[in-house]
Design a protein that fits this description.
Layout (H helix, E strand, L loop, with lengths): L6 H6 L11 H4 L1 H14 L3 E3 L7 H4 L8 H16 L4 E6 L14 H17 L4 E7 L2 H14 L4 E5 L13 H10 L4 E6 L3 H14 L4 E6 L4 E4 L2 E4 L3 H13 L4 E2 L7 H21 L2
Parallel strand pairs: 1-2, 2-3, 3-4, 4-5, 5-6, 6-9
Antiparallel strand pairs: 7-8
Amino acid sequence: MCDGAMGTTLQLMGLPAGTAPETWNLERPEAVEAVHRSYVEAGAELVQTNSIGANSLSLDRHGLAGRVAELNRAGVEIARRAAGGKAAVLGDVGPTGRLLKPYGDLEPERVQEAFAQQIGALVGAGADGLILETFVALEEAVAAVRAAKASANVPVICSMAFGSGGRTVMGVTGGEAARALLDEGADVVGANCGSGPEDMFLAIEQMREEARGALLIAQPNAGVPRLVGDKTVFSATPEEMARWAAQFVDMGVNIVGSCCGSTHLHTAAIARAVKGWAQGRASRSP
């Protein structure tokens, strides 16, 4: 069991639009800790640090490129306090928000360097593992895995965001992603965020065919986001997310959780569904 959304939850708690969520690791650590703790109490066994955008290239847009170590270290410390020994802490690493050559102007080596800096801070602060997530460009995901394998000796999860037809917005299929990421040494591959559980299911099916027995992770959004007035609304109820989680586990996914728009209520429902699935399987065993 993994946890749920951090950024959208902090927004509900007052994080201003356009503000880097990671700044609250220093400015409002009690709020970040409360979110982590709510997930642990709901049944999460893995908590992800509030650091998805805490690489130097992403932070540079907020004038915070020089605070990579400080923000990531604080994120791990907060998560470890909230976990209280009941859950493992995953250092969360997300995309830079920029395009690599030839689609953009960013050199692959520069991206890998930025990821290595962040990963070093996360692992140095005591993260038990790494989750590299929400990537849409395979080249950037590969750079993140390479940085992780070169910089740290902890388990590495790599997850991409898939949309319509089980492809990322850059056209990457689940099968292509699984092959490339596993070849680079990822210990777990899968999907998060994206356009909802249905399209993710297709991508995970493709990944399973290419995974060669590797572990899989699925963390969908709480439905497809819609703009209602000036607010973004996610429509999937905890019960709907729980039903999808049971289907993911039934197809062989090893780690389940949720992403944008989810809360501790979704995590609790998913945990109950997974426990029920396991008990049902045990009762069917000879």
